[in-house]
Structure formats: structure tokens, C-alpha cells
Automatic annotation (TrEMBL):
This is Succinate--CoA ligase [ADP-forming] subunit beta. GO terms for cellular component: cytosol; succinate-CoA ligase complex. It is an enzyme of class 6 (ligase). Heterotetramer of two alpha and two beta subunits. It catalyses: GTP + succinate + CoA = succinyl-CoA + GDP + phosphate; (S)-malate + ATP + CoA = (S)-malyl-CoA + ADP + phosphate; succinate + ATP + CoA = succinyl-CoA + ADP + phosphate. Its EC number is 6.2.1.5. The keyword Transmembrane helix does not apply. Succinyl-CoA synthetase functions in the citric acid cycle (TCA), coupling the hydrolysis of succinyl-CoA to the synthesis of either ATP or GTP and thus represents the only step of substrate-level phosphorylation in the TCA. The beta subunit provides nucleotide specificity of the enzyme and binds the substrate succinate, while the binding sites for coenzyme A and phosphate are found in the alpha subunit.
Length: 397
């Protein structure tokens, strides 16, 4: 689960992280009081969407020559003008895709007197199995570009779980940032606080880009992106309260209500599969034959007819879907249950695109009989390779 920048900063502030004063607004009625609440004269107006690259983004309604989604304002009047121009508009960044995201929240923050911009993130390093700090002196930039062009400027410092961030770890991180004097001491304190927040709140990613050093030599969290491990959210009702469903795909929200593992993608072949590994293989073979999956959808090993029906409806609600592939290998999951769910869903919502069904395993003959006796216009497949070829051919005409 992701949260907004202003929420992330408030959370980090509770752990002692230095952040600038700011006010979030969710309507234009709050604009004047928010601007007046900050001393100025410099205020920064920031779009709050769950996507990076906001500063370099463009608003669909304003054209490519308009300023981006993060704007430095040098007076109260300029801040208000920026707020009115940005609020409610659709911001397009590299991470949103061409559809963009509507800006329904803005964060107005005190300006900062920046001397240096650094990059810091904390994540789980899959290679070492450790929570690790990623540190670079090249903050404020596209970290992927830094990694590709100057990888020597990126440093990874793994943390031993039993000790947390030791003094020696903090020194190594400070060295990576080339900090000295009082700034170094502030940084070492901050690194320990950020690690504590990461672990205690079950974060999967904490990214600060940039972490700045001010002209006065103070460190400050200028931006913050935080993602949480969804499997651990039951332990954090306070974090769950920060969820902004308007930033999430409606189909993914509905899928979560039925305990379905669903992720929307940008292809045109809808997939309903049982088992994450088989779902990945299904998407791969669709790509192999020249098409793209519209989703990842794992109905799980113990799906009911109701659950399968819901899954099918979610797939068909995607206007980009031009064909559907149902690929079931029945172990714990019974093929007849899948078949009943598919038939019920088609009766409920209709079927306007080609449907290929491949069933194998437990109760497979019963499942095939249910499909065959339903009167549905279904293309049967013998195996996964056959199924993939048939649905790609059907979609491409």
C-alpha cells in the first residue's frame, strides 16, 4: 500500500525526522488559509498523487508548456495562482502512463534553502536478505539514470537485523553522502530513526529524494515516498486509515474484497488462472505468441463459484480486454467449480469477446461437461500452449 508524500512526512516526523512545515488541502476552499498558515515568502505547491516524476510531469488540460506538478512560488499570490491552476487537473508523469492521475490533493510547504541534494532509500535487498540503505550524492535526479551512467556513485549498505543500524553502519552511510561536522552527526541520528520507522511500520520501501543539506548545514527530508507490506497491514490500523482508494485501480479494490490476487496491466487478453506461478507462465506464453496480458489474476487454490464469478466480472469490466483465457490446473482447485463460476458470470454479464478455456486436473471431465452443456460460445484448449495460440489468434482475428 502506498501513501501520499505529506502523510509519509508526518509519519517520519513522529520518528524525529526533520521535515519542513506544510499544509495539505483537499479542496480549493482551503487554499487561502493553507497559504496564510505558512510564513513564506517562498512556498512550494506539490501535487499529491501516487506516482513519481511529478516535477517533470505535465497537466493534460494545460498543455506541454505549462509548469509541472511541483511548483516553487515566491509570494502568497503566486502560490494561490498555482493551487488554482493545478487542483483537479490531470497530471501525466513517466509513472502514471499517458492516462495520468487527477490531482485531488495538494501539499503546500515552506521553501528550503538548499545547498546539496542527496538520494536515500531503504528497502529489502533480495540478494542479501537484509534491509539495506541505498545512498547517493546524486539526489534530485532519476536514480535509474545514475545507476546506469555512474554506478560508482550509488552505495548499498546492508543492515544486520539483530543489531539494527549500528554506529559503524551510520558512519558508512554518512561516508557515502560525504557528510562532515555537525551535518554528519545529524545524518547519523536520522539514519537510525528512519530504519526504526521502516521496521516498526513494516515498510517495503522508504525513499527520500532528495534528502537535502541546507545552507545552514542542516539535513532535511524534502520529499518522501513510502510503501507498506500489504501482508502486514493488519498490524497497523493507523496506517490503513491513510489509504487513498481514489489512487488505486477500482478493479484491484474490488478484487481485494473477494481475496483475489489481481493486478491490472496494459494488454488486451484477460487472464484467469489458479496459482501465481501458473499465472506468470500464462502471461509469458501470451507474450511469446505476440500479444499482451490485460491483467494478472490468481483465483487461488480454494476458490468458490462466487469468487470465480467475481473474478470473471472484474476481467470483463476492463474495456481494453478483447479476449479472455481461463487456464486452470485443478489440484486443490476443482475444475467443475471454475466451470460453474464462468457459466454464472457469463449469464450475469454476457460475453462479447472470445473466450478460451483450458481445464486440467481434479474434476476436469465434470468441468468440461458443464462448459459444453452451457451453450456458451467457448473455444476449448488441450494444453497451455494450445490455449495461448488460440486466444491470440481469436483476438487478432
Amino acid at each position: 500500500m502506498n501513501i501520499h508524500e505529506y502523510q509519509a512526512k508526518q509519519l517520519l516526523k513522529e520518528y524525529g525526522a526533520p521535515v519542513a512545515r506544510g499544509v495539505a488541502i483537499t479542496s480549493l476552499d482551503q487554499a487561502e488559509s493553507a497559504v496564510a498558515d505558512l510564513p513564506g515568502p517562498v512556498r512550494v505547491v506539490k501535487s499529491q498523487i501516487h506516482a513519481g516524476g511529478r516535477g517533470k510531469g505535465t497537466f493534460k488540460e494545460l498543455g506541454p508548456d505549462a509548469k509541472g506538478g511541483v511548483r516553487v512560488s515566491f509570494s502568497a499570490e503566486e502560490a494561490l495562482a498555482n493551487i488554482r491552476e493545478m487542483f483537479g487537473k490531470t497530471l501525466v508523469t513517466q509513472q502514471t502512463g499517458p492516462a495520468g492521475k487527477q490531482v485531488n490533493r495538494l501539499y503546500i510547504e515552506d521553501g528550503a534553502d538548499i545547498e546539496r541534494e542527496l538520494y536515500l532509500s531503504i528497502l529489502v535487498d533480495r540478494e542479501t536478505g537484509k534491509v539495506s540503505f541505498v545512498a547517493s550524492t546524486e539526489g534530485g535526479m532519476d536514480i535509474e539514470a545514475v545507476a546506469a551512467e555512474t554506478p560508482d556513485k550509488i552505495h548499498t549498505i546492508g543492515i544486520t537485523a539483530s543489531t539494527g543500524v549500528t554506529d559503524a553502519d551510520a558512519e558508512r552511510i554518512a561516508d557515502a553522502f560525504e557528510l562532515s561536522g555537525d551535518t554528519r552527526e545529524q545524518g547519523k541520528t536520522l539514519f537510525k530513526s528512519l530504519y526504526q520507522a521502516f521496521v516498526e511500520k513494516d515498510m517495503s520501501l522508504l525513499e527520500i529524494n532528495p534528502l537535502i543539506v541546507t545552507k545552514a548545514g542542516d539535513v532535511q527530508v524534502l520529499d518522501a515516498k513510502v510503501s507498506f507490506d500489504g501482508n502486514a497491514l493488519f498490524r497497523h490500523p493507523d496506517i490503513m486509515e491513510l489509504r487513498d482508494k481514489t489512487e488505486e485501480d477500482a478493479k484491484e479494490i474490488e478484487a481485494s474484497e473477494y481475496d483475489l490476487a489481481y493486478i491490472a496491466l496494459d494488454g488486451d487478453i484477460g487472464c484467469m488462472v489458479n496459482g501465481a506461478g501458473l499465472a506468470m507462465a500464462t502471461m509469458d506464453i501470451i507474450k511469446l505468441y505476440g500479444a499482451s496480458p490485460a491483467n494478472f489474476l490468481d483465483v487461488g487454490g480454494g476458490a468458490t463459484t462466487e469468487k470465480v464469478t467475481a473474478a470473471f466480472k472484474i476481467i470483463t469490466s476492463d474495456p481494453n480486454v478483447k479476449g479472455i483465457l481461463v487456464n486452470i490446473f485443478g489440484g486443490i482447485m476443482r475444475c467443475d467449480v471454475i466451470a460453474e463460476g464462468v457459466v454464472q458470470a457469463v449469464k450475469d454479464v454476457g460475453l462479447e469477446v472470445p473466450l478460451v478455456v483450458r481445464l486440467e486436473g481434479t474434476k476436469v471431465e465434470e468441468g468440461k461437461a458443464i462448459i459444453n452443456d452451457s451453450g456458451l460460445n467457448v473455444i476449448a484448449a488441450d494444453d497451455l500452449d494450445d490455449a495461448a495460440q488460440k486466444i491470440v489468434k481469436a483476438v487478432k482475428g
